Amino acid sequence: MSASESQEAAGRPQSPRSFAIAHQRPRSSFVGCSKIADYEVLGKLGEGTFGEVYRARSRKTGALVALKKIIMHNEKDGFPITALREIKLLKLLSHPNILRLEDMAVEHPPRSADKRKRPIMYMVTPYMDHDLSGLLDNPSVTLTEPQIKCYMQQLLQGLEYLHANRILHRDMKAANLLINNKGILQIADFGLARHYEGKTPQPGHGGGEGTRDYTALVVTRWYRPPELLMHLKRYTTSIDLWGVGCVFGEMLVGKPILTGESDGHQLELIWDLCGTPTIETMPGLKDLPGAEAMSPKPRQGNLGQRFREYGSGAISLLRELLKLDWRSRINAHDALQHPYFRNPPYPAKPEELPSFEESHEYDRKKYHEKRTVLPPAPRGGTVGRGPNNDGDGYRNSGGPGGRGYPRNNNNRNFGGPAPAPDERVPAWHRDTRLPPRPPPPADYGNGRDRAPRGGGGGNRQDVDTYIPSYDRDAPRRDDRRRDDRRDRGGPGDRRRGDYDDRTRSNRTRSRSRSPLPPRDRDRDRDRDRDRDRPPRDGPPHPR
Ligand SMILES: Nc1ncnc2c1ncn2[C@@H]1O[C@H](COP(=O)(O)OP(=O)(O)OP(=O)(O)O)[C@@H](O)[C@H]1O
């Protein structure tokens, strides 16, 4: 028995160091540090907290990859701690349903550049044709039940592996689930993930009890569980299962199911769906800091009604995943045993799934942004694709390598013949169904404190919580990437015309309306931040 196994057997939580030792991947599976010139950059795939994600081809192996650029928000501070955490964790993990970090690539500034310029680092992962959010936005894609079951099984298997290894993902959402045209789903974006110090989930016992506090600055609002919206810090692996429930509902109906515009509104939508919480349905409710200001009007919940067309199996699994009581919310292991997967129609096998036109959430964002600035196109024209027909107007903008990109960089038949000038029309050209994307986990500086849609009952809670008190220009070190990031088309995204006027001024407003007095809020925040800092001289720490 290894040291880590005997620790497990003795019921002691595994230290991050023994976890790292027990999970070392074979050396051959990680290249190390290559030069950016080893990759031919083909186009832009996405934008996130770190900056941009590009599609590229390895000049050595010919394989398609994604390059995720690590932005140094403040060069003086060096490599962002959050990126370090993501890299460390991804290097340790090895599972078919977890995105694999294959290499790191470095781009050195040209000799003529400012001497203070630092090299740019890229994370290299296998290229995936879609993210689930992009795929679901594509109106030509309708997922069948066997397909949904297949993706759900893979998602739950990936999550079971993470939780069994004491890792909290903390940003479960459709845009972080990557899918390829071989039918494989992989969990991505470990920027908020960390080592979990509680017990691993036990069969039949949900997520169990939390044993220590963590920062509550996690999970994108639409996927955030009620206990986090009410500021529970002693949370468990079950926060990720709530996100799985939201993703499952999203796959069934084809769009996000809980699209709150503020924390209070998010809770109202949850009560509409799952019923208002009681001591029975959410034990410990009264002890949650966020419960004090809450007086929702009683309702039963309409989950059964809303999802009735998907059958009793789907409804039953959804109820288990969206359980208000986080302790008894189903865990990944038990969810995989749910009758939903054992009753017909049976889950498809990945290799049986159809392949689709590549779809990334960024395509949709890009289309909506361009649509607001471009005049209507003539029939058969190039609306939303810019004068170069390159689909992203990026070709000459000095991305990785600063060399500009080849024409047709968005050719979905990559490697095949060049597309006709207007062939690569993103699916989103035909779609206007979805509301703007939700804010990222800790982009609270943008204060989306609008009144809830449909009145929402004038809840005093209806503000965005966790408003950082620091200035946007001086972000604190640990949360910088979340703080600085522009939401993927969400209300915080300054580039979106419809939200342009709600940035700094609203941030100030919502801060002043936060339920906690500023000093308490700052103290809590600092405590969380300190707790999440890596030990000064301790072992490598997957956080
Ligand atoms: N390996 C990949 N293959 C294809 N697309 C990818 C890959 N990795 C990332 N992407 C695309 O880039 C987007 C952003 O990636 P990711 O979530 O890892 O970055 P991030 O900076 O952490 O984003 P965010 O902060 O918005 O969550 C994804 O939603 C996806 O569309």
Automatic annotation (TrEMBL):
<dbReference type="InterPro" id="IPR017441">
    <property type="entry name" value="Protein_kinase_ATP_BS"/>
</dbReference>
<dbReference type="GO" id="GO:0008353">
    <property type="term" value="F:RNA polymerase II CTD heptapeptide repeat kinase activity"/>
</dbReference>
<feature type="compositionally biased region" description="Basic and acidic residues">
    <location>
        <begin position="349"/>
        <end position="372"/>
    </location>
</feature>
<comment type="similarity">
    <text>Belongs to the protein kinase superfamily. CMGC Ser/Thr protein kinase family. CDC2/CDKX subfamily.</text>
</comment>
<feature type="binding site">
    <location>
        <position position="68"/>
    </location>
    <ligand>
        <name>ATP</name>
    </ligand>
</feature>
<keyword id="KW-0067">ATP-binding</keyword>
<keyword id="KW-0539">Nucleus</keyword>
<dbReference type="GO" id="GO:0004693">
    <property type="term" value="F:cyclin-dependent protein serine/threonine kinase activity"/>
</dbReference>
<feature type="compositionally biased region" description="Low complexity">
    <location>
        <begin position="405"/>
        <end position="417"/>
    </location>
</feature>
<feature type="domain" description="Protein kinase">
    <location>
        <begin position="39"/>
        <end position="341"/>
    </location>
</feature>
<keyword id="KW-0723">Serine/threonine-protein kinase</keyword>
<dbReference type="InterPro" id="IPR050108">
    <property type="entry name" value="CDK"/>
</dbReference>
<keyword id="KW-0808">Transferase</keyword>
<feature type="compositionally biased region" description="Basic and acidic residues">
    <location>
        <begin position="470"/>
        <end position="504"/>
    </location>
</feature>
<keyword id="KW-0547">Nucleotide-binding</keyword>
<dbReference type="InterPro" id="IPR011009">
    <property type="entry name" value="Kinase-like_dom_sf"/>
</dbReference>
<dbReference type="Pfam" id="PF00069">
    <property type="entry name" value="Pkinase"/>
</dbReference>
<feature type="compositionally biased region" description="Basic and acidic residues">
    <location>
        <begin position="518"/>
        <end position="543"/>
    </location>
</feature>
<dbReference type="InterPro" id="IPR000719">
    <property type="entry name" value="Prot_kinase_dom"/>
</dbReference>
<dbReference type="GO" id="GO:0005634">
    <property type="term" value="C:nucleus"/>
</dbReference>
<feature type="region of interest" description="Disordered">
    <location>
        <begin position="1"/>
        <end position="22"/>
    </location>
</feature>
<dbReference type="GO" id="GO:0005524">
    <property type="term" value="F:ATP binding"/>
</dbReference>
<feature type="compositionally biased region" description="Basic and acidic residues">
    <location>
        <begin position="421"/>
        <end position="434"/>
    </location>
</feature>
<feature type="region of interest" description="Disordered">
    <location>
        <begin position="338"/>
        <end position="543"/>
    </location>
</feature>
<keyword id="KW-0418">Kinase</keyword>
<dbReference type="InterPro" id="IPR008271">
    <property type="entry name" value="Ser/Thr_kinase_AS"/>
</dbReference>
<protein>
    <recommendedName>
        <fullName>Serine/threonine-protein kinase BUR1</fullName>
        <ecNumber>2.7.11.22</ecNumber>
        <ecNumber>2.7.11.23</ecNumber>
    </recommendedName>
</protein>
